[in-house]
Amino acid sequence: MPTDKRAKTETLVQGISASQGITYGQAFLYIQSDLEVPSYDIEPDKQAEEIVRFEQALLATRQQIQKIMAAVDKNLGSDEAQIFDAHLLVLEDQALISETIREFENTGKNIESCFNKISQRYIKAFAEIDDEYLRERATDIRDVAQRVLHNLLGHSSQSLSQLVDKRVVVANDISPSDAAGIDRSQALAIVTDSGSKTSHAVIVARSMKVPAVVGLRDLTRQIQSGDWLLVDGYEGAVVINPSQQTLFRYGQIQLQKKGHEQRLLEANRRPAVTLDGVAVTLRANIEKVDETSLVKEYFADGVGLFRTEFLYLGSSTIPTEEQQYQAYKSVAEALAPSSVVIRSLDIGGDKPMAGQAHLFPKEDNPFLGYRAIRFCLANPEIFKDQLRAVLRASAHGDIRLMYPMISGREELARANAVLAECKEELKSKKIPFNAELQVGTMIEIPSAATTADLLAKDCDFFSIGTNDLIQYLLAIDRVNDRIAHLYEPAHPAVIRTLNSVVTEAHKQKIKVSVCGEMAGDAVYAPLLLGLGVDELSMAPPLIPAVKYLIRSMKLSDARKLAADALQLTTAAEILALCEEFSRARVKSA
Ligand code: PEP
Ligand code: MG
Q: What is the DSSP string of 208-243?
């Protein structure tokens, strides 16, 4: 780590604002990188020392794993902690250890290169076995081998479950499964070198009400763990080693923002009705069962998007039908009589499951790959467990189902055929479910948008996932910070597409919701409503600002805004029009 380069004086690093809030605290540096293992000869008189070094690394690894086990046991429970038993067994594997020593004696090469060679051979052998249990051993060996190598090379290997003492998490990137494992009471803020506003880790930060800044390029190279950071999630900035003067200034800003947020929260108790008397449905996006408390706290009209993959990502085992049934039932019961839209598993892409490497092979283009409904249709047993769980839970509350990443009518029909099979299975066992369960499809692939007229005939509602729809329409990877400035929700192609999807849905008399991040952005919410979108669904903490604006505007004006936006030719013009609309209303309110 280039400690000599780190800033001792105050330094401002500008990134992209991803989740609002201001915080000040010490950094917890979290670096995930592929290890480079050097290979060199060991002098004959140093060979005994090399073996001792190996034994010490194995011992240090054992102690680290035991420490993590204790932390996981405390935060997530003993079932999760038991996963690490398998890791301890790898450390005791005599074949792996004695083969490494034999390799060392035969070649005279440094011990890390010998250990790397032998562990890679084991990983490959286990990964190729046609038995799920044995294949999982490959993942265990890989994890443990990385730890041993980190110890031999003198790096610290880390896990976010080691996060304690309220720190600012600073990472080059955070995978959704990393994010799912963060203890929210210990993360003051999340800041990353890469990423964008719609990366899934950021979406999680927003629901956790944790300030986040992304796209900070090389922040991880400028600081080290323990450095003091001020994170400004409003402006997307991080100040390294802030001076007293800067802290004072930000303290003032924080007070102002808190006052403003307090006013929004007070207004949030009132209904979302426009000045011309039109009631607007504002729903919540949730990732975890315990977020039902946020849904109530922010007075959301139930859940418009339950991202169920986070039940999978927070664990290294696939949740059973029964576990999922309990989870969905408890959400439905907690929020009754409001409805809950459960999205079937959208895993893969930037959301591979940890500990299930054999199900998620590495892909060159993960966002164009084996993800969501594609993964579910290729793994019918996993899909059916989830569908049966949703159906069974539908007997206990107003549950609706929707499929992610549908590309056209055929795929929707295939998903519905699997659902029909599940209904038959439950019927034959006399297990109750709602036979009239409403089933919708997300519109987030351009081919679905252009065939919305066909899809609308085969489902009960649409929910537009603008995060993905924009990524695919504009060919902008939603997690690539280098091109994040080109990710333009106001692009005429986006506005025209939204307009045509809403028109086609309404022709078939089905409702349209938007559940991408655009819905929770007070700049775009009026435009969406003006285009005819029926419902908006967003992270609960975003509801107050959107509701405040809705209560300050007329729907007739929003319709005019949309009509004007459809005449404009550039994203910049449309954005300016939307910003002006919001600014004028909020100022005069
Ligand atoms: C979307 O794509 O807009 C969406 C809501 O789904 P996700 O962000 O989970 O991909
Ligand atoms: Mg999506």
A: TT--EEE--TTHHHH--TT-EEEEETTTTEEEES--
Question: Is the peptide bond between 337 and the residue preceding it cis, with omega within 30 degrees of 0?
Answer: yes
How many alpha carbons lie under 13 Å from residue 186 in its C-beta half-sphere?
A: 15
- For residues 405-418, average pLDDT: 98
163 and 148 both lie in a single domain: no
- Shared domain check, 325 and 380: yes
Q: Which of 444, 471, 501, 518 most suits a substitution to test ligand 1, by most atoms within 8 Å of the C-beta?
A: 444
Of the residues 96, 129, 153, which one is the last residue of a structural domain?
Answer: 153
Structure tokens at 571: 């994203």
Looking at every residue in the chain, the average pLDDT score rounds to 90
Residues 167 and 181 in one domain: yes
**Ligand number, closest to the Cα atom of 204:** 1
Taking only the tens place, the pLDDT of each residue in 146-159 is 889 888 877 655 66
> According to DSSP H, which parts of 475-554 are helical?
492-507, 525-530, 543-550
Enclosing domain of residue 281: 277-541
Question: For residues 443 and 155, what is the distance between their CA atoms, to the nearest angstrom?
Answer: 45
Mutate to test the pocket of ligand 1, among 196, 403, 467 (most ligand atoms within 8 A of CB): 467
Asked if 200 is an active-site residue, the reply is yes
| pLDDT at residue 81 is higher than 60 | yes
Domain end marker among 153, 170, 202:
153
CATH of the domain at 214: 3.50.30.10
Give residue-wise pLDDT tens across range 5-46.
444 689 999 999 999 999 999 999 887 666 678 899 999 999
Please report, rounded to a whole number, the percentage of residues in the chain having pLDDT higher than 90. 68
- Catalytic site includes residue 114: no
Identify whether residues 407 and 518 lie together within a single domain: yes
The DSSP secondary-structure symbol of 357 reads G
Nearest-angstrom CA–CA distance, 418 and 238:
48
How far apart CA 115 and CA 149 sit, in angstroms, is: 8
Q: Does the beta carbon of 287 lie inside 6 Å of ligand 1?
A: no
Residues 173 and 144 in one domain: no
In a domain, 568, yes or no: no
Please work out whether the CB of residue 309 comes within 6 Å of at least one atom of ligand 1.
no
Most trustworthy range by pLDDT among 32-46, 255-269, 333-347: 333-347
Specify if 558 maps to a domain: no
Residue 269 lies in a domain: no
In a domain, 562, yes or no: no
In this structure, the answer to whether residues 295 and 229 fall within a common structural domain is no
Contact (Cβ atoms closer than 8 angstroms) between residue 363 and residue 336:
no
Same domain for 227 and 314, yes or no, is no
Residue 466 CB–ligand 1 contact under 6 Å: yes
CATH number for the domain including 119? Answer: 1.10.274.10
User: Cα of 467 to ligand 2 centre, how many Å?
Assistant: 6
Nearest ligand, CA 465: 1
Terminal CA-CA length for the chain: 51
328 & 415 share domain:
yes
d(CA 458, CA 171): 44
What total number of domains does the chain contain? Answer: 3
Q: Place 240 in a pLDDT band, splitting at 50, 70 and 90.
A: very high
Q: How far is the CA of 405 from the centre of ligand 2 (A)?
A: 7
Higher pLDDT, 523 or 351: 523
